[in-house]
Amino acid sequence: MASIKIVLFTSKTLKNGEHPIMLRVTKDRKTKYISLQQSCPTDWWDRAANLPKRKHPLFKELLVKIEKKKLEANKLLLGLDNDEKEISVEEIKLKLQKEAVNKKKVIQYFDEVVERLERTNRLGYSSVFKATKNSLLTFKKGKDFDFSDITPSFLSNYEDAFYERGVVMNSVFVFMRTLKTLINYARKDNVVRNDFNPFRDISFTKFRRIKTKKRAITKEEIIKIAELEIKDNPRLLNARNYFLFSFYNRGINFIDMAYIKWENIRNNRLQYTRRKTKEDFTIALLPPAVIILNQYKDFYYENDSSFIFPILSYSYKTPRSINNRLEKMLRIVNGDLKEIAKLVGIKENLTTYVARHSYATILKRSGIATSVISEAMGHDSEKTTKIYLDSFENKILDEASKAIL
Same structural domain for residues 54 and 87? Predict the structure, then answer.
């Protein structure tokens, strides 16, 4: 087994006349030294205790740094012993040096991952990591901390802190899952050891059992929205059109709708690639969708490469400016949809996403097989589609039960 010891390396004298404080690693009668990037004069070093003397003006500061390095080294050696692998003193030195170089704190590493995601234009995903980082800062009262602090107990307390603040379980799942993903990244980047996994004995099953509140409305309510008379209010008119265009086109989401151009309309079909999954769609345009397109063609058509809807324009050039514009417009549209819901008497919290849920649910109630709905929406499996589908009303199930009589 290897041993470590803090020593004053008197064989070397620095320019300031002091000697470097070193971590000495011994195994199989071989010795290697690792610098702690600290120094001390001979007169202020206690050889018996292998520590600076109390009279040293930086005694407390040096003591903290030395004890921290000793703790880090002992943790690494313990891990190596648990692996039960023979390893030379040279390899131990390399691992200890690598550990020192890669010693990053959790919040620091979060910032690096966020920067990496933003650099590759994955702005939506980066915002999830930012939110998780902020939740950890709240939990730790604004202080950064080491990966070694993340233990099963830490994770349990972190989760409980969300519930104490009234955070819903779905959101807790996102934060916990993102932290787990960060640790996976840290292993790949050699920020933590390959066997570091505080989530090992933590199950996410309880989160997957959560039933998401269904957000679909009925076909009759869709008709009410379509027939609503809107005068002298372009914002409400746009919000209504975006919602209905999504509904009539297999629940196309707001981001994809913002990007479509006139060149995406070919032979009375909408052809586009979904930005989230990179899947290609070709959708036959229903008559109501054509009417909506014609309204915008009269006012906004410049050429085939111009945007159909006045959500984006070529004045937004950088990924950040585009993302900010999309977030702003989505807030505005969802606010206007709430106003439309009040005008037609819909109690459901109406958002652009309700159009996608409603498309799937209305198809289901019309007797369309889940496999067909899944294909239409571009889902990888029917399991994903079922999340979108509303439950049949009790009266329908009650009628179905009569079949056994």
Answer: yes
